[in-house]
Every structure is written in C-alpha cells, then in structure tokens.
C-alpha cells in the first residue's frame, strides 16, 4: 500500500492542480461560514467595499498588512494567509508551465510529417 506522500510513484508536492485557488476564495468561504457580509468586513477592516471585492475575486493580492488585519479580526494567523498567496502564485506558474509543455508536445505530434520522395 502506498504512503500519503505517493501518487503513482510521485510526491504530492509535485502535483499540479487544475486551477490555482486565490486566498480571496478562501476568505469568501470563511465569510459565508461566519455569516459576515462584504460591507461588514470592509467596515471592520477600514477599507472600501470595492477593494475588498477585488481581493475576494482575486484581482488583488493579499499583503502582509491585510493578512495581519484578518488575523486580528478572524483569528486566522497572518502566515496562513501569506502562505495561501504564495501557493496561489506558485500554482499559477506551474499551471502555465504545464500548459506550455502540453502545447509544445501537441504541436510536435500534430505537425505534418516530412515526406521524402525518391528521385
């Protein structure tokens, strides 16, 4: 039986997700669980609602200052938020690399074969 660190002979750290999850999505789920509205959280954070919406939609990155504010309000440590942000960008890069590799492989295998004619 394989260990938790193995999948088909590899390591979970080597897995590339289908899509990257922005920490804003995690925050949105946390808000729903706690029944906190965007308006209420924006007010408690001292920021415009539009800025919070951009963070929730992944249009802005989480900063250390924002992570500390979330820690103070929600009790989820700032390091966790920053790790989520770093993981998001790591996965965005890995997904782009995988897609480029797949495109190159597809282009190579679908190229017209070279036909040589006897002269």
UniProtKB/TrEMBL annotation:
<dbReference type="InterPro" id="IPR013430">
    <property type="entry name" value="Toxin_antidote_HigA"/>
</dbReference>
<protein>
    <submittedName>
        <fullName>XRE family transcriptional regulator</fullName>
    </submittedName>
</protein>
<keyword id="KW-0238">DNA-binding</keyword>
<dbReference type="Pfam" id="PF01381">
    <property type="entry name" value="HTH_3"/>
</dbReference>
<feature type="domain" description="HTH cro/C1-type">
    <location>
        <begin position="27"/>
        <end position="81"/>
    </location>
</feature>
<dbReference type="GO" id="GO:0003677">
    <property type="term" value="F:DNA binding"/>
</dbReference>
<dbReference type="InterPro" id="IPR001387">
    <property type="entry name" value="Cro/C1-type_HTH"/>
</dbReference>
<dbReference type="InterPro" id="IPR010982">
    <property type="entry name" value="Lambda_DNA-bd_dom_sf"/>
</dbReference>
């Amino acid at each position: 039986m394989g260990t938790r660190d193995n999948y088909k002979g590899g390591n979970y750290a080597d897995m590339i997700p289908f899509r990257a999850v922005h920490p804003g999505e995690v925050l949105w789920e946390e808000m729903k669980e706690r029944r906190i509205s965007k308006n209420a959280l924006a007010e408690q954070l001292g920021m415009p609602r539009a800025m919070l919406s951009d963070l929730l939609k992944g249009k802005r990155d989480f900063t250390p200052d924002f992570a500390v504010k979330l820690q103070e309000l929600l009790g989820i440590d700032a390091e966790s938020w920053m790790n989520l942000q770093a993981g998001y960008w790591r996965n965005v890069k890995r997904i782009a690399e995988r897609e480029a590799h797949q495109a190159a492989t597809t282009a190579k295998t679908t190229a017209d074969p070279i036909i040589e004619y006897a002269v």
